């Protein structure tokens, strides 16, 4: 038998649009989304459960005057009752088949409450307070909870933030519900129903609605700020503003003429509210499903042995009797801009007979072999890395949430590697996803952050731990060519741990959002910066042409990717050497004060290879001021190849 058109009309399917906001809100806030289940949950709720509830209410009440969504409702038939039963059964069956059992249980509870509200046997709607509270709970907090279960397949964790959002949802319905009854007083009284709206009166209903929405907004504020999403709260306010404006206008009309509390004005209010809220939560879905990434923490560590540049230069010159070489070492050391460096080696300020790593002779011969150097790396790399990681604020509390670990090094290798050692020592989850960036030189930290950024943008709850550890001084070589004059007098040891997350943190004055990365390889500098293995360790090529190559190419590189120097107020540049930093500033027309943090790190630590640029960035972030919000940060580092890696950040 065909279903009569009036029966379909009484389901009031378009009315589901007015009830859609809480589902969209839940979709925007769910930690995980199972898209197929979410689609089924949406269809079941809005095309079956809500229409069936509307239809059953119409069948029982047999309304003769306007009801929500219908100005002139037709009289119902038994077909409507049987159709609502069929739709309820179909919704539960589909939930079991295509969503999950808990969602189906939630549907049963919702349907039961809806029937208890309307049925002649129980008739909760005739009790102004019990009926009101039933609607507020089931169409508010319970609907949000049920939607989360359908969208994510998980139970909503009862954290303080989630209590706030559940209360906010219920107060949202508490404000809207009496307002939808304001034109029905006469019809409800004919049916023996005294609604809360009738008890409040026309003016009281509007005042009560305003109070409920104020409480709703307060709990939404608590929810978003507790989750460190205060900016989202203000975005919500922009969309809520038209609702407030129209509400105020309607209230003004009703104060002048109670006849303005009619069906048509109520429906206009419903349309304004639904369009604004649905649009708002769709925007939140877009924002939250295209996640950003943030640098949430940077911590550093250096070995115990701190040496002045004069001490290290003296050790170096003491290994040769050639006076010209001694003079060159002294001159180059004086021009590096370095005052101190750190090392895991204890020998640099000792007499030859006290050496522990080098051969106990002034000429250092025979030099330590590759195996001995790698042994020293394995002894110290994990310890130094742990020092950096354990400085991260609250790391013990969050380490179980770390999803990815990326280790970076170019000064030593062993297996199981630094990543596995850190997992074991830190007791990180055994399921953590690991990767390593090896042998890529001074710009490897930015390459690792690029990986972390990609992970966070595709995994909304990702927390990526990046650890860069370099023990450059263990590769001190008894060589005196120009390359080694530079490398022996520039490099030090250090480690950095950075936490990159898909959600912002409060580690710094402003959250630090990662914007983008750019890369350039200068093939004409292929041999000017390079590492290679030898029997006595890693051999460094670092020619004096490197600063020229960088200075001549950095500005064209920025122009090619449409980055303007004027767009950046803060600079975190890798201190590859004093001349590199000088020429970088000159090439971009920067005052050297803009690179003050770079010069300071070079002065205090030397070039530690990959961690160094993050030592600089840490200084930049910790010196942020309130007026810096919205400012952008430019970071760059230089590595073998010759390669330039840049990173753009913003205070948000």
TrEMBL record:
Keywords tagged on the record: Membrane, Transferase, Transmembrane, Transmembrane helix
Residue ranges occupied by any Chalcone/stilbene synthase N-terminal domain in the UniProt entry: 295-504
Keyword Nucleotide-binding: no
Stretches that traverse the bilayer: 6-27, 39-60, 80-113, 129-149, 161-179, 200-223, 229-251, 271-290
Classification via SUPFAM superfamilies: Thiolase-like (SSF53901)
Membrane topology: Multi-pass membrane protein
Localization (cell): Membrane
Residue ranges of every copy of the Chalcone/stilbene synthase C-terminal domain listed in the record: 521-650
Similarity remark: Belongs to the thiolase-like superfamily. Chalcone/stilbene synthases family.
The protein's name: Naringenin-chalcone synthase
Source species of the chain: Dyadobacter linearis
